[in-house]
Amino acid sequence: MADTPHLQVASAESQEKFRDKMTEIKLKEQEESVQRHAEELGIGYINLKGFPIGPETLTLVPEAVSKELQTLAFFYQDNELRIGSVDPSNEHVLALMENLAADLKANVAPYLISPHSYELAAKLYAAVPKVKKFTAGVQVSAEDLKTFQREIHSIKDIADQIGKVSLTQIITLLIAGAIISRASDIHVEAEEKDVKVRYRIDGVLHEVARLPSTSWKKVNSRIKLLAHLKLNINARPQDGRFTIYLDDDTIDVRTSTLPTAYGESVVMRLLMSSSVGLRLDDLGMRGKALALIKKQVIRPNGMILTTGPTGSGKTTTLYAFLTQLNTPDTNIITLENPIEYHLAGVNQSQIDETGDYSFAKGLRSILRQDPDVVMVGEIRDGETAEIATNAALTGHLMLSTLHTNDAAGAIPRLLSLGVKPYLLAPAMNAIIAQRLVRRICQDCKEPMTLDDETKTRVLEALKAIPSSSGEKPNLDQLTFFKGKGCESCQGIGYKGRIGIYEVLTMNSEIEKIILSAQVSEYDIRIIAQKAGMVTMVQDGLLKALDGVTTVNEVFEVAE
């Protein structure tokens, strides 16, 4: 009986050895089965156990994509690339290999591997430095863009070129065309019979091409690979981004996918770093309004708001303010969602609602960072509004945006969010309402005649401009213009955009209204106009008289 514990130990060791042996046999049988299946498919087979894979080769397939598809690169030399996959016939794996072949200009061969073989090889990702930059599947090269840009002279050329390039080059072609066309967004939308491609140029969508529906899956996979999105998820929205490095600029491409009836709608927003260097004088403000804003921006405290709908240029205006204020002796902190442009010398913080980092919580935190200037991307709740107002009263210059139709509407909006009237009145410096209008192409600008109804509307608006504004148009000599359409503007008649503005600054009469029990948006507007405020419509019509934009554009945007 004394030997019983020893026998039990021996028995346990024997059982463990037996289990290991059985596992080894099962893995061997699995490998043999996978090898036979590879022969049936007519492709290569490999067991990656102990196979030496270099970091440069392994990271040709990003780790997230590798785990999602159970696929990785295990050999790359002399333009010969070998890809191991548990399911090499998967359409997403095929799209990945096509993209790698196009990006690397390499011959790509698939190999079938077992799940166990993949798991062993995938452990090597842990040894790769996290700062490693992927070289394939996530880049659109400047060289390829230049090649297409030499062949594209207008958006009409894009449809012709699409039929001549491979599926992996279509996205590069579309981005090259967007850059040439000055497009802010590329829309790729799956429809019942085909795929529609549209550019948003100067705020207006233009259809530029149609793709056959058979190409949709590969084009969609290419976009998702570029933006680091999950390839096999198409039933819920996804957001991603990628960066294109040009010789003299950087383009950040924000990508959004949305499930639709026939596939997905993909929108790629192009954010060019060169477009962020606007100065106050470049925005389009004029006369007394520009002088007032320049005075308000250099004040050490108080609040300046920009208002308007999405896409009206509010953030660009705030960035112009930050550009002027950005000096070595000024601490500027921003809260944004998302950070659209990166500004050197400015501390920019990204809001994350899913991580419980809201505008309100972020604002509380950054006020402890001793800022001189604070920019909050948007005021949309009572807590943020209250904290921002208090910050404006305690030695900070507060910049933010608000969704209202005009400048006068911002005050009732803030009060409805719960801001105390006795705090708002002294905190507010200025409110800017704005819209963006398209500029007439200067290469094909010509005079135009207004119809009687439009002319009457124009005269009524111009007559109402207050004399204290300093604007005195000659109503007896009104000449307006339009763009005829030429090669320079690609036949559109417009080229570029400019802001139209109304600037409301605080005065004693407006403060009295705020502190009274009855705040009327109408009364605030009347007082501001008596003090010299030019409305957005009036500002737009003055720009139309200067030949900058058209009357129709002003009325469409601002009325």
Helix-strand layout with pairing:
Layout: H1 4-41, E1 44-45, H2 55-58, H3 63-69, E2 71-77, E3 80-85, H4 91-104, E4 107-112, H5 115-122, H6 142-149, H7 156-162, H8 167-181, E5 183-190, E6 194-201, E7 204-212, H9 216-226, E8 238-245, E9 250-260, E10 263-272, H10 287-297, E11 302-307, H11 314-325, E12 332-336, E13 347-350, H12 359-366, E14 373-376, H13 382-393, E15 397-402, H14 410-416, H15 421-427, E16 428-440, E17 445-448, H16 452-463, E18 480-483, E19 494-505, H17 508-515, H18 521-530, H19 536-545, H20 551-558
Parallel strand pairs: 1-4, 3-4, 11-15, 11-16, 12-13, 12-14, 14-15
Antiparallel strand pairs: 2-3, 5-6, 5-10, 6-7, 8-9, 9-10, 16-19, 17-18
Helix pairs in contact: 4-9, 6-8, 8-9, 12-13, 13-15, 15-17, 19-20
Quick rundown:
With 559 residues, this protein is α/β, with parallel strands linked by helices.
Overall pLDDT = 89
Q: What is the structural class?
A: alpha/beta
- How many DSSP H or I helices? 20
Query: Which range does the strand content fall in?
Result: 15-25%
Distance between the termini: 100 Å
Global shape: globular
Overall helicity: 25-40%
Can you tell me the CATH topology of the largest domain?
Rossmann fold
| Beta-strand segment tally | 19
CATH architecture of the largest domain: 3-Layer(aba) Sandwich
Biggest sheet character? 7 strands, mixed
The CATH homologous superfamily of the largest domain is named P-loop containing nucleotide triphosphate hydrolases
Q: Strand order, biggest sheet?
A: 13-12-14-15-11-16-19
The gyration radius over C-alpha positions equals 31 Å
- State the low-pLDDT regions, or none: 131-138
CATH class of the largest domain: Alpha Beta
Count of discrete domains: 3
